[in-house]
Design goal:
CATH architecture of the domain at 5-179: 3-Layer(aba) Sandwich
Shape: elongated
Helix content: 25-40%
Radius of gyration: 23 Å
Strand content: 5-15%
Number of helices: 17
Structural class: alpha+beta
CATH class of the domain at 5-179: Alpha Beta
Order of helices and strands: EHEHHEEHEHEEEEHEEHHEHHHEHHHHHH
Length: 385
Amino acid sequence: MSQPLRYLDLVGVGTGAGLDVVGACTAEPFTRARAVLEERKAAGLNGTMQFTYRNPARSTEAERVLPGAASFLVGACSYHRDPPPVPEGVGPVARVGRYVWADDQERLLRGLEAIAERLTEAGFRAVALSDQNHLVDRAVAHRAGLGWYGKNANILMPGHGSWFVLGAVLTDAAAEDIEGFPTADPMEDGCGTCVRCIDACPTDAIVAPGVVDARRCLSWSLQVRGPFPVEHRVLLGDRIYGCDDCQDVCPPNRLEQRRAGRGGDVAVPEGDPARAWVHVLDLLATPDDVLLERHGRWYIPDRDPAYLRRNALVVLGNVGDGRDPAVRDALEGALRSRSGLVRSHAVWAARRLGCDDLLATVAGDTDPDVRLELERRVPPIESPT
């Protein structure tokens, strides 16, 4: 026999285990979210991204995950941290997106699993879900009233912004089984006429309010298979994983930063320099197994370190100094890589940095991507002063 449950007790369990925000909603199919996914997939806006696009019906119908599903307990954890200072005197460095500066995803799962355990103890079935292709996390958070959809497609929470990882516990416990179950309505738009995120996107990936073209998104481009999109290489700048530009300019996020700076009620730690910045030359020189151990929390296509080196070489072409012997040594090493993907991007970086004399190493290379890069015109980087 199921035991009585109180919603506030479940909230306490979740926040006690690390969640920053808890909400709840019923588990009817997300028909609007399914229609949106199907429309954007048909238009090709997902590019090669699968995730919830792989099977929109499954990711928007809770019954497919847990037969008899009746409700969600929704959780969120903040990943906002102030940027640590840029390391000095160690050669070119690359930026990493905030959401991997700490183990916030793990903290989120711990909180969700604690709630799921309490539900299970009370005789119900429950499963914790986050960042998986069978649940539309943002649609669940929106239905639970945690925030509204921003024009950058993120969920924006009043007073706190969008620096949150999201997840939920799906359970067959219905609203009437949980005393005090909330009846929050989805939040109305809070962006108004603001278009700062749209204007700030380096590649114009936000093609309409709330609509992101994954094919233009730098964060996704860093995770795609094959060559890094040539039209976005210069625009990548010094980013090596993730892109925070649309969130950095968002007024609710900037308000959160100002509140923290004034000693407000939200304590914001400083990011870990070892996670916020990557030494580009060090990455290119590090053995494959060490790279995977060091950056294993990142999404790396096929778990192939060549993709880390590909991205690092694009960054090097944007922030390196071709006159620096250490940079030239790194390029020369990459041009001798066994990976055609690495060699081809080393060609691009060498051309961009004015190191064409190094290309004799690959003059007879038969790899088609290397040949293509040798023939490509590359915009030279402005010489450092």
